[in-house]
Amino acid sequence: MAIALICTLLLLLSQLCNASDAITQLKPLSDDGSTLVSKDGTFELGFFSPRSSGNRYIGVWYKNIPVRTVVWVANRDNPIRNKSSTNTMVISQDGNLVLFSQNETLVWSANATRKVSNPIVQLLDTGNLVIREANEENVFLWQSFDFPCDTLLSGMKFGRDLRTGLNRRLTSWKTWDDPSSGDFSMEVELGGNPDIVMWKGKVEYFRTGPYTGNMFSGVYGPTTNPLYDYKFVNNKDEVYFQYTLKNSSVITIIVMNQTLYLRQRVTWIPEAESWTIYQSLPRDSCDVYNTCGANGNCVIAGSPICQCLDGFVPKSSQQWNAMNWRQGCVRSGEWKCGVKNKDGFRKFSGMKLPDTTHSWVNGSMTLEECKAKCLNDCSCTAYSNLDNTGGGTGCSIWVGDLYDLRVIESGQDLYVRIATSDAGADVKHGKGKKVIVVVSVIASLVFVMLLAFCIYMTKEKCQGKIKTKLRTEDKNEGRQEDLELPFFDLATVVTATNNFSTENKLGEGGFGPVYKGTLIDGQEIAIKRLSRSSGQGLKEFRNEVILCAKLQHRNLVKVLGYCIEQEEKMLLYEYMPNKSLDLIIFGKFSRMFCFSTAWCLWKEGNPEQLVDACLANSCNVFEVVRCIQIGLLCLQHHPSDRPNMTQVVVMLTSENALPEPKEPGFLIRRVSKEGDHSSNRQTTSINEKLLSLEVLPCIQMAYKHGVKRCRTISNGILFPVVCSSFCCSVVGGIPTVPCARQCV
Ligand SMILES: *[C@@H]1O[C@H](CO)[C@@H](O)[C@H](O)[C@H]1NC(C)=O
Ligand SMILES: *[C@@H]1O[C@H](CO)[C@@H](O)[C@H](O)[C@H]1NC(C)=O
Ligand SMILES: *[C@@H]1O[C@H](CO)[C@@H](O)[C@H](O)[C@H]1NC(C)=O
Ligand SMILES: *[C@@H]1O[C@H](CO)[C@@H](O)[C@H](O)[C@H]1NC(C)=O
Ligand SMILES: *[C@@H]1O[C@H](CO)[C@@H](O)[C@H](O)[C@H]1NC(C)=O
Ligand SMILES: *[C@@H]1O[C@H](CO)[C@@H](O)[C@H](O)[C@H]1NC(C)=O
């Protein structure tokens, strides 16, 4: 008995001492608990069964991490059914690495092609399992790094060897306890301009966008980080991505997560004894491949998120309006190749570059040469710099439709071919808020100049329904910017409103009365006539013209034009017949009712009750209440109490304390009750519609941010969810149907 015990102990000891990092022809590895351990003890290789499964696999995992993390599996698609010490991994006669199950069936073979005289199989400190000649340390005849599973380790090449045709791609585990190949994979896609593509089965699911010198066009993130360095190598022999740890004591890996359909970078936190997610892709619905279809542009803060590029219209507006964007957009018809004024480019800044499958590149061309090259080819639809570093170099050209466009922080400039009559303005998407403010300032100045100009010019010059262009010079580009808003002359408006007759009066807002009108062509319009006595009128008017021109939104009343003549300042809106806007505002989802609710709940101190139940779990209540408060501030009766756009932007982007909102305007029956306010409005009751016209831009900002702040996680992707009560309350009665439709 004692002898048997000693023998067992000795056997165990010998096994422990022999915890080697290599297999030789004389020393195979059996399924009896023995393992290989890399020299520095980081990685371990052996037989294992995942969780509840009884199947046996050969795998590599981190030795010192308590949560077993398998980073590579040899026979992932050929499991051994039974645990048995007769399962063995051996070096075969011809120097290949093979795996036998108990019945001596060959289960797996490394299929190394070159023969060696004295082969050993070694597990390196990097986690790489290699076959090599015993006396040649750095020449590998085969290596597991060339056959990744679902995990990318530091130092692994992810991508193609063009000389051998090897494609090192990642494929997820099928389930948590089944390492066989799932349907979520990722690989380097070749082409004129390679990028990395994720697949969900055979469906393209995400692409990183081309590498632009120090990052991938569509992967937002810091180019330097404390954890790892990375590079993308693209030459005639190889195309691959690789990252290397800056400090090998930090453990971070890239894993394909089939459950969530996310490629995750996870980092081991020793103190917490768990992995934390450092980065996930795709991040949002705009990241999902081609969400907005051909020539559609995805703007995650937008509502809806898909918009056609300027110069393009939805292929099927019915589908598009039903939020089925896959059919994408087509040219609006103006563009004619090579025809003067009908052919040119518009610059879109902050863009993820389109799918490069149908693209062409030249690393030495300048941007000007690139433009010329594109102009000379009628199939060319867009161009950009190839490399974005050092001010931009090289040329990338796209032919045919543009796919998978989105606005992204730190995105690139993309020049899209469109009719030049609209090609003037540079659209800077990525920095929307700042741009709106800057544009407003520039445009305001220009507008003042235009006003002066118009007053100076003789009356005839301003007569008739002419289009007035506000032109600014963009210093950097030397380009011209056109802000177009049609100008209507006073006579047209007088005719349309039957000389501002009382029957045509819809009501009165904070700045003056609003009339209904009918243009000669039969179009119905609403006209807001700024009261002459309002000292602030001109400023607000200017802002409103500019903002309305910039912030057109399908949930908002469209501004059709303006009129300035003599003392008159007027804005012309599309008229909302009773059966659309009014129904929604005053009918089923009464405004009055909803607002009232909003204001009452606010007064009671329970504004969070406005949040629809379906939003409850996906919203940060604090942020929603903040949006509601900003919405209420926008609706205060006196224009001077309402925040201006810059203030709204600050309020939405900071956590500063907000002022307490005063009672919304339309709750006050008679303005005269408010005191000595302007004399020509004392008896008119406030009309809800009019108020909404005045506060739209302000509300719209709150609304957009409300959307941005309320997202729900569905299928691993973030979808904006807006529910009727939220829209109704925050937006103060802007149509809620499209919002409600998104609330599933
Ligand atoms: C041997 O084992 C393999 C894998 O476990 C199995 O597929 C095969 O049917 C077995 N063969 C025999 C003859 O039992
Ligand atoms: C082991 O394999 C044999 C046949 O290959 C099978 O009959 C037996 O049930 C298996 N044992 C277990 C525990 O699965
Ligand atoms: C090795 O070759 C066999 C036969 O061609 C094939 O079935 C098997 O999948 C290959 N093994 C690996 C690991 O590629
Ligand atoms: C590497 O990381 C460890 C643990 O965080 C730290 O103690 C060590 O100083 C780091 N080494 C370097 C060279 O930064
Ligand atoms: C995928 O991510 C979820 C959530 O982080 C995690 O619970 C699960 O284990 C992950 N699956 C894999 C295969 O890593
Ligand atoms: C790339 O552009 C340069 C400069 O225009 C030209 O000399 C060169 O031939 C081009 N290369 C290719 C492959 O077209």
Automatic annotation (TrEMBL):
> Which InterPro entries has this protein been placed in?
Bulb-type_lectin_dom, Bulb-type_lectin_dom_sf, EGF, Kinase-like_dom_sf, Pan_app, Prot_kinase_dom, S_locus_glycoprot_dom, Ser-Thr/Tyr_kinase_cat_dom
- Span of domain Apple: 337-419
Q: Where is the signal peptide?
A: 1-19
Name the Pfam families for this protein: B_lectin, PAN_2, PK_Tyr_Ser-Thr, S_locus_glycop
Please give the SMART domains that the UniProt record associates with this protein. B_lectin (SM00108), PAN_AP (SM00473)
* The Bulb-type lectin domain, residue ranges: 20-144
**What positions does the domain Protein kinase occupy?**
500-744
Which is one GO molecular function term here?
protein serine/threonine kinase activity
* Regions crossing the membrane: 435-457
Q: What is this protein called?
A: Receptor-like serine/threonine-protein kinase
Q: Which organism is it from?
A: Sphenostylis stenocarpa
